[in-house]
Structures are given as structure tokens and as C-alpha cells.
Amino acid sequence: MQHLERIFSSSPNRIAPDSKVIEACIEACAECERACAACADACLGAPDPSQLRKCIRLNLDCADICDTTARILTRQFHASLRFIRAQIEACALVAAACGAECLAHAGTHRHCGFCAEACKRCEDACRKALRTLPSANA
Amino acid sequence: MQHLERIFSSSPNRIAPDSKVIEACIEACAECERACAACADACLGAPDPSQLRKCIRLNLDCADICDTTARILTRQFHASLRFIRAQIEACALVAAACGAECLAHAGTHRHCGFCAEACKRCEDACRKALRTLPSANA
Amino acid sequence: MQHLERIFSSSPNRIAPDSKVIEACIEACAECERACAACADACLGAPDPSQLRKCIRLNLDCADICDTTARILTRQFHASLRFIRAQIEACALVAAACGAECLAHAGTHRHCGFCAEACKRCEDACRKALRTLPSANA
Amino acid sequence: MQHLERIFSSSPNRIAPDSKVIEACIEACAECERACAACADACLGAPDPSQLRKCIRLNLDCADICDTTARILTRQFHASLRFIRAQIEACALVAAACGAECLAHAGTHRHCGFCAEACKRCEDACRKALRTLPSANA
């Protein structure tokens, strides 16, 4: 995400005093989106997909919510913090739920273990962003 | 959304006892996504886009969040209500923020007035879905 | 999609002389996105999801491509027709592939039959849009 | 994208003999999506957004198409190459169009220059993926 960092540093907009935390959250969401999309596909192609159906469902949800959360955080012009904070909260919750489900399959499906790591990193980054962002203004 | 209704009625999955409320919420989110995307484009092409920059920003956020919320609600298999409720809450908040901003421009830009209606309908449908869905289970 | 129609009619931008065809294409893509997302979920919850794995995969692809195609067509300001036409072409192809797979399961899974109809309508609307849009300019 | 690489290496599915090229394309699309979303926001907040309206429009299109293309390529189970190739082609075209527009503003807006680099890298990665993928089978 080297381009993202440079674009932010030359942008007139700023969502929070510490933009490194926001950048790290965007990056963790983006990585988690890709990991979940890949894990859903690997689960779908597994010899017994029936055992992985809840995992696939959560992977799809997590990928969609991560993508939207990354997009919202990337927009720093005229940020309305109330819904932004709610969106990050939803992202932390889905990453926690998806990560827990993936972890339960990590012993038999290595891809689920790797995805659980990406989910955990995303959840942590969202929690850190929530602590860094100013309180809701509107 | 006639296909959606028929697919739901023949699906083995059910997220809530009253699926009509969920369907209405998905439809309102989908309509709001399209309205916001179209409003952002109309604002961008306006003679003086500078006055509409906050509106464009909120339109883009609202479109992304609406799409993701509609997707999450469409998945009814093994629903984890805690993050689903958080996602609907984020959607209600962004629709309220975007609708308020659009309404402020409705006098000079008719497309903003139409978009404000779609946002209001989406916000109401999200609030109704939150009242209908069972409490968070996980 | 009543809001979309009214927003377009009050927008300063126009992608094609006949905006009804573009609106119909956006609506068909939006409906197909929702149908495919719902069909993927219904397939995932079916007693034997293994037989429906290819269907799920194509449903997910079709939903993503439909959403993006609808967004691209909604933006009418400064349209660059070369990639827009390529995106609609991709949408027509995925709708055809997904519709054919769904049709193969329509006898045993009614939701697949309904989804196949949404795919067919989307494919036809994309083909009609391609005939209506001016040739690529850039 | 370390998680993505590891998930792919433990997945039962494979879209092409050389998965490194596909991974590189997914990564370039993901990076370009984030760069374009950030560039659109920076343009929107610029002192004179009117000069950057075509850039914003293309940024939004490029971000959407990049995200969908990355998702399609991430799904390697039962890949239908005909529409996948069409989607990558659309992505190469929008990245070229967006990159050219960004480059025209690089002298006055540094973020546009950085975004142009991400677009160029994405376009090249798409072209390389098209050369690597087998011909369309369906």
C-alpha cells in the first residue's frame, strides 16, 4: 500500500491527527477482504464443503464489510464520525466472528488458519482506529 | 425485486420470522445505493460542484454501506446477529446523515431532493429491521 | 427504482441519447445482483451443497460484476465509452454463464430457476445497452 | 498480501499454472482500488475541484472495477475463463484511462501522480494475467 501512504501525505484532507493508525486500519481491512474471499473459495473447493458452510458465509460477509470499511476510512474529506465509528464497529465484530469460525477449522484446513490471522489483525486495527478517532461529531 | 422475493420463498434459510421486513429493507438499501450513486454523479456535473462536495462524499459512503448491508441481509444461512445488527445500525446512521445533507440542497438541486427521499426510506427500513430481528446471539 | 429515474431526469449529465435503455440496464443489473446473492445463500443452505458449488461460485461472480456494471452506468458525467462497453460485455458474459448453470438446477432447486430468469433479463439488457451506446470514443 | 499467498498455496483450487502472476494481478488491483479511492477524495478536497471532475469520475470507476476484478481472480474454483478474461480486459482499459487522466494532473496534484503509478502497475498486471491465463473455455 505504498501508493496509498503517499497519496494521503499529499492530500488536503485529514480524518484524524494520527493518520498512520487509519492507514494501518485500511491496509488490514484490505488484506482481510482478500484473505476472506480466498478462504471462501478454498472452502468451496474442499472435498467436504458441508462442514465449512458457516465459514463460507462469514467469509463473504467479512469480505464485503472490510471493503466498505476501507472505502469509508479512505475518504477523509468532511468526515462524519458517527456513522464512520459505527461502520468500524461492525467491521471489528464481523472480523471477530469470522476469525473465530476460521480458527475452529485451522487444524484441518490450513487456509482457515491463515485467514483467522488476517481477521484477528483486522479486528485489532479496527479497535485501535476506534480509540484514535475523535468522538462522534454528527 | 420480484425475483428476490421468489428466491427467498424457495430458500431453505430464514434470518427472521417476518421475512417481508427483511426483504423491504434489502430493497430500500438497494434503491438507496442506486439513488446515492446517481446523486453523486449529478452533483459532480453541476455547474458549481464545490458547494456539493460534502454531499458527494456522503453519497459515496451511503452507496457503499447500503450495498454491503443489502448483501449481509440477503445471506440468511447461519446468521450471526451481533455484527448484522451493527451493520444495519451503521446503514441507518449514514442514510440519516446523507439524507440530511441532500435535503439541504433540495431547493436548488432537485436530484438531491429525490435522493433525500430514498435515504429517508432506507433509514426507516433499517430501523424497522432492527426492531424485527431477534436480539444478538453471538 | 423510481428514485433513480427521477434523479436521472434532473441530472445535468447524459451518457446516451436514450436514457431509458440505460436505466433499464442498471435496474436489471441491480435485480440480478440481489437474485444471485440470494441464490448463492439458498444453495449454500441446501441439503447437498456439493452439487451446487459451481452455481455458488458463478452467483458470487455475477453479483459482483452486476453491482460494478450498474455503478459504472450510473455515472454519466464524462463517460469514457471504451471501458464502459468492455464492462457491460463482461456483465453480459457472466450473466449468460451464471444463468446457464442456474437453469441446469432449476428442476431440483426452484430458487435457481428464478435466478436464471434474473440472469437472462440482465444479459438481454446488457446486450441492448451495448447496441444503444455510442461507439467507443476513447 | 502475505495471507493471500499462503491461502492460495493451501487451497485445493488453481485458476492458472502460474499462480504468481494471478496473485500479482490481484495485489495490483487491490492497491489500485485503494489508490483511486484516496485520489478521488484528495481531488474532492482540492481548492478547485472543478478541474478534477473527470479525474474523480474515473477514479470511482477504476476503484469499483479493480475491486470486482480482484474478487473474480481470487475465486479459482471452477473458473469460467470467458467472462473472467472480459473482466480483466475491462480492468486494463479503465486503469489505462484513469492513469492517463491522473498523469495529466500530476504536475499540479502530487496525489494524481502517485495514483497514475498505481493505475499503470494495475494495467500492466492485467495485461500479463491475460497472457498467462489459458484461452477461454466457456
Describe the protein's architecture and organization:
Chain A is mostly helical. Chain A has one domain (19-132): Substrate Binding Domain Of Dnak, Chain:A, Domain 2. Helix content of chain A is 75%, strand content 0%. Chain A has five helices and no strands. Chain A has helices at 2-9, 19-44, 53-74, 81-104, 110-132. The longest helix of chain A has 26 residues, at 19-44. Chain A is elongated and about 50 Å long. The two termini of chain A are 30 Å apart. The model of chain A has no long low-confidence stretch (mean pLDDT 93). The interface between B and D is small, with 11 and 10 residues.
What percentage of residues of chain A falls in helices of 4 or more residues?
over 70%
Largest interface: B-C, 42 and 42 residues
Order of helices and strands of chain A: HHHHH
Looking at how many chains there are and whether they match, the oligomeric state comes to: homotetramer
- Sheet bearing the most strands of chain A, described? none
Mean pLDDT of chain A: 93
Number of separate domains of chain A? 1
Structural class of chain A, by secondary structure, is mainly alpha
- Please report the number of helical segments of chain A: 5
Distance between the termini of chain A: 30 Å
Please identify, by name, the CATH architecture of chain A.
Answer: Up-down Bundle
Task: Determine the CATH topology of chain A.
Answer: Substrate Binding Domain Of Dnak, Chain:A, Domain 2
Shape of chain A: elongated
Mind telling me the CATH class of chain A? Mainly Alpha
Beta-sheet strand percentage of chain A? under 5%
Spans of chain A with pLDDT under 50 lasting ≥5 residues? Answer: none
